[in-house]
Amino acid sequence: MEELDVEPAITNIPAASDGKHLGFAWGPGDILAYETLYMAPGSGCSFIHEVRKDEDIYSPILRKLFNESHHIFVGLQTIREDLPSKNKKTQFVSISKNYRSVIRACMEELQQVAVSTKVAEVATQYGNQVSILLAIELIWNLCEVLFIDAAPAGPLLLHLLDWVRLHKGDVDEKAREVLQSESPAEHHDYWDVVVSYVLQGRFEEARQMLVKQATLQPAARNMYKLMDTLLSKMPFYNPGGTQTLTEFDVKWRHWHEEVDRCLQDNSFASNQHLEIICKILVGDEDTLLEHKELLSTWYHFLVTRLLFCHPTVKPTELHYYAQSCMTMFLDLRSVPEPLDSILLAAFEFDIHQVIKDCSIALNNWWFVAHLTDLLDHCKLLQSHNLHFGSNLREFLLLEYASGLFTHHSLWQLAVDYFDNCPEFGHVYLELQIERVPLDTERKALKVLRICEQRQMSEQVRSICKIMAMRALRNNRLGSALSWSIRAKDAAFATLISERFLQDYCARGTFSDLDLIDNLGPAMLLSDRLTFLVKYREFHKLYEENRFSEAAKLLLSLITAKIAPRSFWMTLLTDALPLLEQKEVIFSADQTHELMFCLEELTSSLNTTAPGTDRTMQVRISSCTQTCNRLQIKILRCKSAITIAMRKGKNAPGF
Amino acid sequence: MESVNAKYVSQKISKTRWRPVSHSSLQQPDIFATGSWDNEDNKISFWSIGNHGSSGMDEGFEGDPQLLCEHKHDGDVLDLQFLDQDRIVTTSSTGAVTIFRHHQNSQTISVSQRWPRVHRYPCDNAPCTGVVCSSPEIVTVGEDGKIIVFRADQEGVIRVIENADSSTIHAVTYLRTTEILTVNSIGQLKLWDLRQQSNSPSQILSLSGDRLPLHCVDRHPNQQHIVATGGQDGMLCVWDVRQGSTPFSLMEAHSAEMWEVHFHPTNPDHLFTCSEDGSLLHWETSTHSDMPSFLQGGRNNSMISRSAMAPAGGNQSLISTWLSGDSSKGRLETTHMLPSQTLSVNSLDVLGQCLVCGTDGEAIFVNRQVPV
Q1: Looking at this predicted complex, what is its ipTM?
Q2: Which residues contact residue A525 at a Cβ distance below 8 angstroms, ignoring those fewer than 6 apart?
Q3: Which of A480, A522, B142, B147 has its CB surrounded by the most CB atoms within 10 Å?
Q4: Are B74 and B94 in contact (CB under 8 A)?
Q5: Are A501 and A532 in contact (CB under 8 A)?
Q6: Is B163 in CB contact (< 8 Å) with chain A?
Q7: Distance from CA of B212 to the nearest CA of A (A)
Q8: Per residue in A108-164, pLDDT tens?
Q9: Any idea what DSSP says for residue B232?
């Protein structure tokens, strides 16, 4: 047994407290809990509680996330294996960005709703979802920089700066406020904004802000000019340029020494704000830590520190700085939150820890499933094997897709996820698809299409059978027959054909002729169905007065033995009017055969006669009468043929 | 492709329909209705795509469709048809037929008439699969194989044709004012003359052999004998109901069920189809390969304008391109109208230059610059 990573969460079932006993059953996604009775009967409650593990799939806004990301996911699976790895990388990065933009769009919408709603509870709920999505996007973005894009020293810092800027947007808001005030330079947030810009390495904006202050203090003009020069001269690595990393490093060191000199000779001593900025530029840790409020997070602190102290940090060195920044930034007393440890794990390039911690911290599988899938495509997860299931990617995708399948509407999305789980996806789909309720034929056709495309013949048969049974229950024989033909279900087709024949015997007319007359080769599905179609054909011929063809068909139906025994009498009775026609229709051979069948039938009647109940006896006696009539007719017919032969005329059949 | 934009709506869309525009004005449509399916609570919704003013050629991409109002709908919305500018008829998987009124001043929806459980089996509801209306007459069909005729201004049912079909009727359309056409799940087209009291069709046309279900049908807007259908195998069939009982031509279109087919209402050389395979196709027949239509009169100098709203008398001489059309000769061009899609496109509607479609991926696509 492995140790538990976290204490399991406790869910209280209402109305089931106070020492009552609970039973439960696992569902595909949810758990059903019910009160079990040990006391006197009648005292218990009759409720079943549905305990949902994943509330998020019921959020109408998050549904957009699921649908849009499904589209991206399917696109990702079609990226060809044989592409050169460089092209692949750009594709993977752009896919990662697509995922993130979907998260952002979703977040914005949630934010809007949270603000506009008047119900406090809803506002909190949406607010919580926004903060979860924010965290998700933050983690995803960092993973994109570190793992997917895998930027080397130099560009790495630029990406990390972008990452911090994107997730620390409140600076821009504050700046807007300051700039819109009457005299920005005297606004109480003015210096906060300038320092924040500097901390994020946004020197252009910082300089523009400083100009406003400089014009107010003509005496300190030179000092501001010096600061402006320092800021403008700070070198940034240009990944597209020809400059090597060493050249950049030398340049940066020069600049750093220059800033240090300014600090040493007290160039900014008379202006406390500029002095602080200068100290930040030189990377003074104490000064940085004094601005915790503006940095707000340890990872902002980390990136700022790297910017001013180690701009050529290598990916492999990151974990060292990350760890120290986190300890420096967080108070000794405060415990790191899940988000902190996840980010730290990312900086340590421990992908599995990231995924594991996310799985524990987040209440849905969407994020881990999609991120893991993407990382797996980047070939970053090969080394790790699970001691259950197939691999991490497939395990998480299966969990996510199974969750979707429990949703009354989102189940359709899950199919593509199952398709892309090579080991167990098919089995999962087989088990889940049979549980989709089929309310309409259109829905049944959609489910059927899913099964047929994947050669799931067992499920195809079962769906068709369900639909056929339903049609049969509603007395829609035609529909039922169509469904069983689609399923190639011979047994059921036989059953329905029997029903058709019974209906015919009861009413004397056929129903659903539009179907029966147009079955074509499908009638060969079962003997009984073939008989039904042929028997109907006989009636058609008879109605069209094509007697000899009708007689031939009828006789072949009798002799081919595909007619149910119970139907023989009817068939022979049908021969009566043909025998009664003025002209002779049956040939000598045909009359022989007819006679033979009749004898067989009579003998079987006689053997079953004794000991049966009254109604049966009545039926048998009426049958016997018919047989006698038939016998007479056949004999008459026979003699007619014989006379005709003697006269040398062409009788039928000669 | 740029002029197509997707809007995710958190419900699978089963039907989309433009609100009709008045014939006198050459306006483009600006409001459409959608119906959802497979949700716990289904809805019909009205959307606006904003006012066009001019043709909007320069802007191309305008804002998303905006939700105007929505109303709960019992059961899946299986079909939608506008009765007039304000009223829309829906059919439900519960067998109900409902007329909703859209109040445009207050942007609200109310139920103005409802026939619950009109399509039913002896002891269960039967989904009502299709509706067609020509105000005030409404004709519905269902899985119970019934054809039911209503009038919007009368409470009762006008007429029921029991056992009109032994299998499910999937769609219905008007052929002429008194004749309707139904398609069923065993590949048959049936013509019904509503003036006749008999309960059997006046004509049956069928696909030969395999009895593949037909899912949709549309009639050529000018030449009433030309009919297009689509079915389970995704083939597009064009029929001439005057001649023969088998389709005039069969064209490979989609790789799964074709859910809807529509001729362009004013430019019927264009046709649109959508399918379970997630694609939306635009079909165009050019009258004759590369000759402009006005040169085709030849020595016979009777000029026929193909864009005329209705053919003048003697339209028999006018052979439709759909009947002379032969895809192998390249007279028929098809283009995909959606970027790669995986989930079914359940419905489409086209009016003027605007096309709207809805998918199982819970997205609505609007294209305002359909090249017709």
Answers
A1: 0.88
A2: A484, A485, A488, A490, A493
A3: B142
A4: yes
A5: yes
A6: yes
A7: 10
A8: 999 998 889 888 888 888 888 899 999 999 999 999 999 999 888 889 999 999 999
A9: T
